[in-house]
Amino acid sequence: MQQHVRGMYDLRQELIANGVLVQEGSGYRFTQDYPFSSPSTAAAVVLGRSANGRIEWKDAKGRTLKELQEAEAGR
């Protein structure tokens, strides 16, 4: 990640250093709310790779953010 997405890598390291993001098992967990400019930036920071946040983020029922947004737009 460090070579490919430098800004996200730096942000991830900063969040870890400040205790906002902590390792839990093979993944990471937020210890507090943290605003991101986009769902994809948030996903990339957590996953450690480029990511499409609209398909990576899922609710407890397994629905993607994209599905939820499309359902909301259809109302």
Strand order of the largest sheet: 1-2
Assess the beta-strand content as a share of residues.
5-15%
Structural class: mainly alpha
Question: Number of DSSP strands?
Answer: 2
Helix content: 40-55%
Protein name: DUF4357 domain-containing protein
Organism: Hylemonella gracilis ATCC 19624
Pfam families: DUF4357
Domain DUF4357: 12-65
Structure notes:
The protein has 75 residues and is mainly alpha-helical. It has one domain. The chain contains four helices and two strands; from the N terminus they run αββααα. The protein has helices spanning 6-17, 39-47, 53-56, 65-73, and strands at residues 21-24, 27-30. The chain has a two-stranded antiparallel ribbon. The longest helix has 12 residues, at 6-17. It starts with 5 loop residues before the first helix and ends with a helix. The mean pLDDT is 90.
Q: Can you describe this structure in just a few lines?
A:
This protein has 75 residues and is mainly α. Helix content is 45%, strand content 11%. It has one domain (6-73).
